[in-house]
Design a protein that fits this description.
Blueprint lengths: L1 H26 L17 H12 L6 E7 L7 H15 L4 E5 L5 E4 L6 E4 L9 H9 L15 E8 L5 H16 L5 E6 H35 L2 H24 L11 H25 L4 H28 L7 H21 L2 H8 L3 H8 L3 H15 L1 H19 L17 H12 L4 E9 L9 H18 L2 E4 L1 H12 L12 H13 L4 H4 L8 E8 L4 H18 L5 E6 L1 H35 L2 H25 L5 H30 L4 H28 L7 H32 L11
Antiparallel strand pairs: 1-5, 1-6, 2-5, 3-4, 7-9, 7-10, 8-9
Helix pairs in contact: 1-7, 1-11, 5-6, 6-7, 6-8, 6-24, 7-8, 7-10, 8-9, 8-10, 8-12, 8-24, 9-10, 9-21, 9-23, 13-24, 13-25, 14-22, 16-17, 16-20, 17-18, 21-22, 21-23, 22-23, 22-25, 23-24, 23-25, 24-25
Length: 758
């Protein structure tokens, strides 16, 4: 028997070593990635509309904006000459499609025999600066787009090639930064997808190390305080590190990259895996301290700890797999790979851990668990207090529930594009600069379709309606960087009539015939093709607005739809709000809905599982209430604290419910075992309360220690994710310690035996 046990345990250790070596070769290929478009909702029909729209015209989020400050004012010759030189250098960079700068914007004159392009700014002749200034600041199309109201900076728009890989994006960002850095401007604000992507990825790499490091230190500390032994620290840490390592290896094998979601995965596995190890370790050394024969301990652990731990595995995995309800691939991947890691940790706990304990069991750990420790005495005092104050606990819980329900109604659903980054990150400061001094950076995109077979964009009544739409967008959204069919019309009309001031007026019906001729004659011109399709049946209105948040944008969108309904002929024109930013907002709405579905699914599965095990709906209530109330309280806290509901914070509920149920499962499962030994409810409960106290408190501290590590994140969503789950776990353990006993006595009191044991 000993030979077969020794061989079996040796084989387990050899397999673990070999597979770990194999994973080491795989992990080398693991990479960090951040695909902005991976967060578009795949199930939304608007994604198809957007993809078709940008295929016909161009991608609305493939651009870079430079905001270049000159504290002495922009109408300075040396400054404008540097801007002109920079503009020319930027145009020479590979992967740059076009550059629009104040020094290369030209007014077109069509009054002579041939078109003549006249510079907007006469940078070589300072005597014309005042005239240029008047021309510029009388044109609302330029102010807020290329020029701010304070005339202390200018903006350069760079259209990049589309669908650039990370390597090409990084290279392009480096070249652009190198170009403007050599001119020693007062300040340069640099924003765009390629910049944000690079910042996100660098932060992800840093935080990956931070999360692991802080989680490791905190968990080592809790383990040392609990077991007072190097062995009691090294072995549990080894189990969870191997679990993380194997999961990362499997991700590498599957070609999965680490992104803003999966970067939290090691911390999740560290936390959930450690809970299994602690329960196993505690029970093993408690039984040794009580003199139980070593051969009998493992079967006993499987019965009293293994089965409850298996149930906690199911509930935790159900919580993470509920993320499969999401239409967002990175979130689904996070749920799947975290579940895989947690399952690996469970398997290693019940294979590798017994193998290691078989070959070496330190006596110091036995002595520690044999002492009448402080945790036991604390749990004893708490239980007696609970017996005397049951009504107080119920009243306090009811009051918290009522206050939380009020708080729930205060929760707002909102999303900002770069809110994940802290205010100290430069790109966010640059983003805010454009919001403050210009129209903003957030894309505003409308897809226009002519639904009347007998009409085209070029018809006067259609163009007139679109001009009204332009004016509404500028007023409603304070939009800038506007490109639209009506803008083209006014630009050509201005050139035909040699207007020199302002934006240009919209032509009358008589004047429009010559404008239409120019539009159709030059419809293959690349600048016109970006706005109007060759057949005249499709067009776009593109602009930039402030990142005011999805809630505010939603209100503006509602006003826009009302304007379209009241002022545009729906039989002729169809307008669709589209664009990358719009899809991100849609994603946020879907996430809240999907996570609600996922949470309800988790709740139902766990309720059915509880009923199947205990054959009692009252036990389902006993199980659900202590774990549902913390989620209700956390929702109330979000409402009162103004923490908005979005993709990241909506994840908390499904995951926290799956994690928080662990202690309740261990408690109720141990109670069932004690009752199975023929003990009365009161005595079985006392034994359960005293003996599960230390593992429950220890795993709670470990869980909180792990999730606290997420609160060092520069990503706001990651910070709130860690913060909210920490509070949920803390409230959940209080509910298990104080409310759960009351519920058991109130709901199951008819099962109490008349005899009690002391």
């Amino acid at each position: 028997m000993n030979i077969s046990q020794k061989l079996w345990n040796s084989l387990i250790i050899v397999f673990v070593v070999l597979f770990s070596v194999y994973c080491a070769f795989q992990v080398k290929h693991l990479r960090f990635d951040y695909d902005f478009e991976a967060f578009f909702p795949n199930e939304d029909s608007e994604l198809e509309i957007y993809e078709q729209h940008r295929k016909q015209f161009e991608w609305d989020n493939e651009f870079v904006l430079l905001g270049i400050e000159n504290k002495q004012g922009i109408f300075k010759k040396d400054f404008l000459l540097k801007i002109d030189s920079l503009t020319k250098e930027l145009q020479q960079i590979a992967l740059v499609n076009r550059v629009i700068s104040p020094t290369n914007i030209k007014n077109i004159s069509l009054g002579g025999l041939a078109p003549v392009q006249l510079r907007l700014m006469h940078i070589d002749d300072e005597s014309l600066y005042k005239e240029d200034s008047i021309t510029i600041y009388s044109n609302p199309q330029l102010v807020g787009s290329f020029f701010p109201k304070d005339a202390k900076s200018i903006s350069i728009f760079i259209k990049t090639d589309e669908n650039l890989s990370k390597r090409k994006s990084d290279s392009l960002a480096t070249q652009i930064e190198k170009a403007f850095s050599q001119f020693n401007f007062d300040e340069v604000h640099f924003v765009g997808r390629i910049v944000a992507q690079n910042v996100y990825l660098k932060n992800l790499e840093i935080e990956f190390v931070y999360f692991l490091g802080i989680s490791f230190i905190l968990i080592v500390l809790f383990l040392w305080l609990s077991f007072r032994s190097l062995y009691g620290v090294v072995v549990p840490i080894t189990i969870v590190i191997l679990s993380v390592f194997w999961t990362l290896g499997i991700m590498a094998m599957m070609g999965q990259a680490l992104d803003i979601m999966t970067v939290m995965l090691p911390t999740m596995i560290f936390i959930a895996g450690m809970s299994d190890v602690v329960h196993f370790f505690s029970k093993y050394f408690e039984e040794l301290a009580h003199g139980t024969d070593k051969q009998k301990i493992f079967p006993l652990i499987l019965k009293e700890v293994g089965f409850p731990t298996f149930l906690t595995l199911i509930t935790t995995v159900v919580g993470f797999l509920s993320l499969l309800f999401s239409s967002i691939k990175p979130i689904r991947d996070f749920g799947v790979y975290t579940s895989i890691g947690i399952i690996i940790a469970f398997c290693l706990t019940y294979t590798l851990l017994p193998a290691l304990l078989y070959f070496f069991t330190p006596k110091k750990l036995v002595m520690v668990h044999g002492q009448n420790n402080n945790t036991y005495n604390l749990m004893r005092r708490l239980l007696f207090w609970i017996f005397r104050h049951q009504k107080t606990i119920v009243v306090a819980s009811s009051l918290l529930i009522a206050l939380s329900i009020i708080g729930v109604y205060k929760i707002r659903v909102n999303n900002l594009l770069l809110e994940d980054l802290s205010d100290g990150v430069k790109i966010k400061q640059d983003f805010q600069f454009f919001d403050k001094h210009y129209s903003g950076v957030r894309p505003l995109e409308l897809a226009i379709t002519i639904t009347n077979a007998n009409k085209t964009i070029w018809d006067y009544d259609v163009m007139q309606q679109l001009n009204g739409l332009d004016e509404f967008l500028k007023k409603e959204y304070q939009a800038g960087f506007m490109y639209s069919p009506a803008m083209l019309t006014k630009t050509i009309h201005k050139a035909l009539t040699n207007q020199t001031m302002g934006e240009g007026s919209f032509p009358t019906l008589d004047e429009y015939s010559s404008v239409k001729e120019q539009l159709i004659t030059h419809k293959k011109n690349k600048d016109i093709k970006r706005i109007i399709s060759l057949d005249g049946k499709h067009a776009r209105i593109s602009g930039k607005i402030n990142d005011m948040g999805s809630m505010a944008v939603h209100e503006h969108n509602a006003n826009l739809l009302t304007y379209i309904s009241n002022n545009l002929n729906k039989d002729d024109i169809s307008i669709q709000i589209t664009g990358a930013a719009h899809l991100v907002d849609r994603n946020n709405e879907y996430m809240v809905t999907n996570m609600t579905q996922g949470f309800l699914c988790s709740l139902i599965i766990i309720a059915i599982l509880t009923f199947f095990l205990h054959k009692s709906w009252r036990m389902v209530l006993v199980f659900i209430l202590p774990n549902f109330i913390p989620l209700l309280i956390i929702a109330g806290i979000m409402g009162y604290a103004g923490i908005e509901l979005k993709a990241a914070t909506s994840l908390v509920f499904s995951i926290a419910f799956g994690v928080a149920t662990d202690d309740t499962i261990h408690f109720i499962s141990r109670l069932k075992i004690e009752l199975g030994y023929g003990k009365s409810l009161i005595y079985a409960f006392k034994r359960t309360y005293f003996e599960t106290g230390k593992p429950i408190l220890l795993t709670t501290f470990i869980l909180m220690g792990g999730f606290i590590s997420l609160m060092v994140s520069d990503f706001q969503s990651t910070f709130y994710f860690g913060f909210l789950i920490c509070i949920t776990i803390f409230i959940a353990v209080l509910a298990d310690i104080f409310l759960l006993p009351v519920l058991i006595f109130w709901i199951l009191k008819d099962k109490m035996n008349s005899k009690t044991h002391t």
